[in-house]
Automatic annotation (TrEMBL):
Cell division protein that is involved in the assembly of the Z ring. May serve as a membrane anchor for the Z ring. SUPFAM superfamilies: Actin-like ATPase domain. The keyword Coiled coil applies. Residues 48-114 form a coiled coil. It is found in: Cell membrane. One of its GO terms (biological process) is FtsZ-dependent cytokinesis. This is Cell division protein FtsA. GO terms for cellular component: cell division site; cytoplasmic side of plasma membrane.
Length: 447
């Protein structure tokens, strides 16, 4: 198999760093060839705060994935999250010089580039500009303006903004680990690609990805992303609370949370007790499961309520914006017992746990289809899509070159039948590709 077929997702999280290698199988599904994970030590709340440690963890995860798959990893698609990510709605318009011509890609590029001139806070940069819907000469709700006539083209945009330094730091870690940056993706978008079905995105759905250090939200409606947010709390703060509340060490708190934790205190009887060995010859501690789940409950309610505020900010309560498919929970934190019931109780919205098996090949490991790996699977899929785009662009360029060569000497014997060769559509380069290049350039010059 040729090398460009594989794609590698690198999920740099607060608790773990995952490197996942995948390729497309014959049915167009993602087949995962290998996975490597390392404890993440240099990341806090989704943001790199210790470059050396992060590089070591990335290298460890990459080596593990290479060993498992027998593939050599050179390029990775990396996810960005963290509390510095925010999003805003913005509308902008352009006036076209010649309304006799139909609207084409270039008009849309011009409109999108105009949004990039928005004045941001110091140190912030636009990561994604996602068009919502277009208006042509005042006619609203146009999904695809290309090919239509009109003088004034305007659109509503969902603009995602993040801190330049944080993005560059991640780029730095990847580069110093001896890897090339193939692409940068917003983590909530990656997770959404992995666990949501197209029907859910059409009907309206909120994806909540509860990670170790952050909780990411992505809201879809009518198949388009409408709102994104990153909330700087995740599974780690629950562990912290258990540690403080029960006066035990972090390792024990984490185990307690995973093995006995529940988000619903009513579930536990008063006499259910766990005994925890004391440190260095001290007496063991006895903790009732009821108290444990009370501590967890209090913190989870806080996280869910913050997310719900964001869902309301999007406008879920308006009839037209109602999220019919409700909520999908994913990420490591989604494995907490009775979380689904609690989320339904707080928000009154239908909820399911999202497993990233929507686009995975049928024979994938059970382990990979865990909510824990949603972001990594999404990043692999993103990398595969990018490669597909590059292939199409390359093919288009080759066809153009051939055409130019053939134009010099037309062959009189062949009569062209009109309309047989469909023009290859050159896909618009997303801003993320441009951002990736900028980060690459920056790192190259900084060396």
């Amino acid at each position: 198999m040729e090398n460009n077929k594989i794609s590698v997702g690198l999920d740099v999280g607060t608790t773990k760093i995952v490197a996942m290698i995948g390729r497309k199988n014959d049915y167009g599904k993602a087949e995962i060839l290998g996975i490597g994970r390392a404890k993440s030590l240099g990341v806090h709340r989704g943001v790199v705060n210790n470059i050396t440690q992060t590089i070591q963890s990335i290298q460890q995860a990459i080596q593990e994935a290479e060993a498992e798959s027998g593939q050599k990893i050179e390029e990775v698609t990396v996810g960005i999250a963290g509390q510095h990510i925010r999003s805003l709605q913005h509308s902008d318009y352009i006036t076209r010089a010649n309304s006799e011509l139909v609207i084409d890609e270039e008009d849309i590029d011009r409109l999108i580039n105009q949004v990039h001139k928005l004045v941001m806070l110091p140190g912030e940069e636009i990561i994604h500009v996602l068009p919502q819907e277009y208006k042509i000469d005042g006619q609203a709700e146009i999904k695809e303006p290309i090919g239509m006539y009109g003088g004034r083209l305007e659109a509503n945009f969902h603009v995602v903004v993040g801190q330049v330094s944080s993005i560059r730091n991640i780029g730095r870690c990847v580069k110093s680990s001896g890897l090339e940056l193939e692409g940068i993706t917003l983590e909530p978008l990656a997770s959404a690609n992995a666990v949501l079905s197209q029907e859910e995105k059409e009907a309206g759905v909120a994806l909540i990805d509860i990670g170790g250090g952050t909780t990411d939200l992505a809201v879809f409606k009518d198949g388009i992303i409408r709102h994104t947010a990153v909330i700087p709390f995740g599974g780690n703060v629950i562990t912290e609370d258990i540690k403080e509340g029960c006066s035990i060490i972090e390792k024990q708190a984490e185990l307690l949370k995973i093995k006995f934790g529940s988000a619903w205190p009513g579930e536990n009887k008063d006499n259910e007790i766990v005994s925890i060995p004391g440190l260095r010859g001290r007496e063991p501690k006895e903790i009732t499961l009821k108290n444990l789940s009370k501590i967890i409950h209090a913190r989870v309610v806080e996280i869910v309520e913050q997310v719900y505020v964001e869902i309301k900010n999007y406008g879920h309560e308006e009839q037209k914006k109602k999220l019919i498919a409700g909520i999908v929970l994913t990420g490591g934190g989604a494995q907490l017992k009775h979380l689904k019931q609690l989320v339904e109780y707080i928000t009154g919205m239908d909820t399911r746990i999202g497993f990233p098996n929507e686009h995975l090949a049928g024979d994938s490991d059970e382990e990979i289809a865990s909510p824990l790996y949603a972001t990594a699977v999404g990043l692999v899929m993103d990398g595969l899509k990018r490669q597909e785009r590059k292939r199409i662009e390359k093919a288009a360029a080759e066809v153009e070159e051939e055409n130019l060569e053939n134009m010099e000497a037309p062959d009189p014997t062949i009569e062209e039948e009109p309309g047989l060769t469909p023009p290859l559509k050159k896909e618009r380069r997303t801003f993320l590709d441009k951002l990736t290049e900028r980060v690459k350039d920056f790192l190259d010059n900084a060396e």
